[in-house]
Design goal:
By secondary structure, the protein is an alpha/beta fold. Helices cover about 50% and strands about 15% of the residues. It has two domains: about 30-215 and about 410-425, 3-Layer(aba) Sandwich (Rossmann fold); about 225-410, Glycogen Phosphorylase B (Rossmann fold), CATH 3.40.50.2000. The chain has helices at about 1-25, 35-40, 45-50, 65-70, 70-80, 90-100, 115-125, 140-150, 160-170, 170-180, 190-200, 210-215, 225-230, 250-260, 280-290, 315-320, 340-345, 360-370, 380-390, 390-410, 410-425; strands at about 55-60, 85-90, 105-110, 130-135, 155-160, 185, 205-210, 240-245, 265-270, 290-295, 305-310, 325, 350, 370-375.
């Protein structure tokens, strides 16, 4: 009954929204990207690539989730060399990243609309023998139809936060039958496991295997450090503010001013999360009166206080130059925090705000080892950063603890593959 109501609302809502959808598609070309695939029209080349091989369908919605699955895809290919992998994503950015950087996927597609007609059509075209999905991607029609067709449905690197538990609890008649039908849930933490069990998954189908993002992260190079050396910006304490969001830069600049009263040569490397905010953050820097340069127009003045990283794909290469890194998306509610893994792998102490639901297990490990510390405002940021910026030997010591915490979390992919072997939930011939 719950799913019937869900489908009625989905269909009726879609009909009522058609004029607005049409207008959005007309004025926003990016909304048209992948539209035919979302409506279940896959290119003929997909079937040609898959051939008659057994097919694994893996759904990882965003850029971070899809790239984090690469070690898992490699493991599947090593264990089942004849398998074909279809990777589905939700966003155009994730689609581009997957096609460019995940050669292990035999085909990349947009995830279909969660309507029975679309799901059945895609299912008939790719004929998967097992369906894997990451994080908390619970699509009622897709999972229910796969279950009815006898296709095992397996959650890998699964998260089930208190927020998700509350949200799904409000729609319990829709989601509880779906959760009960899942073949296996490989969760990131014990807390995730307990919440998904409370939501309806049988306890015997839930195991804790860890977070794929730890296995998928690699230690970065030192290109960023070389860039700073060329600009004469090394030889001074460096604080990196990584992947910041609106509302965080003001706090960080306040913390920077407090720190600079003790450390006049302090350099803040500021890296906003989204390129569309580069100009906004530069305007903020101009209003603040602090001397700054930016990556796109480097300054030869070594006395600048802030270096704005207005480029893509370079952030991790700067980590090794820092005495401490603050990871953004965590001082403000909403984003859930960005990856603390890369700075820790660079053996640098990590600071983060209280909102880190995307990396719960890793953050807890960093806190436990002393490699990472939580801050809440400019004052606590300055309090925790000052000793690390003032004493390079202390920074290195804490950085080694951060590195150890990440290495300790490594192995989620192998634990997941082991459980799949034990429960015989790998790909099989159709």
């Amino acid at each position: 009954m719950g799913r019937l109501v869900y489908n009625c609302v989905l269909s009726l809502g879609g009909l009522l929204a058609l004029p607005f959808i049409g207008l959005a598609l007309l004025i926003r070309p990016r909304y048209r990207l992948g539209l035919s695939q979302r409506l279940s029209r896959l290119p003929p080349s997909i079937a040609q690539r898959l051939g008659s091989r057994a097919v694994v369908w893996l759904h990882a919605p965003s850029v971070g989730e899809s790239l984090a699955t690469r070690p898992f895809l490699r493991g599947l290919k090593a264990q089942f060399p004849d398998v074909a992998v279809v990777l589905s994503v939700l966003t155009p950015t994730a689609y581009r990243a997957a096609t460019d950087r995940l050669p292990e996927a035999d085909a990349v597609i947009y995830f279909p609309l969660d309507h029975p007609l679309c799901v059945r059509r895609v299912l008939g075209q790719i004929r998967p023998s097992v369906f894997f999905f990451t994080e908390t991607e619970l699509w009622p029609n897709c999972l229910s139809i796969l279950h009815r067709h006898g296709v095992p449905t397996v959650l890998v690197s699964g998260r089930f936060s208190a927020r998700a538990a509350h949200r799904y609890g409000l729609l319990r008649p829709v989601f509880e039958p779906v959760l009960r039908s899942l073949s296996l849930c490989c969760m990131q933490t014990q807390a995730d496991a307990e919440r998904v069990i409370a939501a309806g998954v049988p306890r015997e189908r839930v195991v804790v295997t860890g977070n794929f993002k730890v296995d998928g992260s690699v230690e970065s190079d030192d290109r960023g450090k070389a860039i700073l050396e060329e600009l004469g910006l090394t030889g001074r304490p460096i604080l990196i503010a990584a992947s910041t969001h609106r509302g965080e830069e003001e706090i960080l600049l306040d913390g920077y001013r407090r720190l600079r009263t003790h450390l006049p040569t302090l350099l803040l490397l500021l890296a906003p999360r989204y390129p569309q905010r580069f100009d906004e953050v530069e305007t903020l820097l101009k209003k603040s009166g602090v001397g700054y340069a930016k990556r796109s127009q480097p300054s030869g003045d070594p006395a600048i206080g802030v270096f704005l990283l207005d480029s893509l794909g370079e952030l991790a290469s700067f980590y090794s130059a820092a005495a401490v890194v603050f990871v953004g998306g965590s001082l403000v509610k909403g984003p859930g925090g960005h990856s603390v893994i890369e700075p820790a792998l660079a053996r640098v102490p990590v600071l983060f705000g209280p909102h880190t639901r995307n990396f719960v297990s890793v953050v807890e490990a960093l806190k436990h080892t002393g490699g990472g510390r939580e801050v809440t405002d400019a004052g606590s940021l300055a309090h925790h950063a000052l000793p690390l910026l003032s004493d390079l030997s202390l920074s290195r010591q804490v950085g080694r603890r951060a590195y150890a915490a990440i290495r300790q979390e490594h192995g989620a992919v192998e634990r997941t593959l082991r459980v799949l072997r034990q429960r015989r939930l790998g790909p099989r011939a159709g």
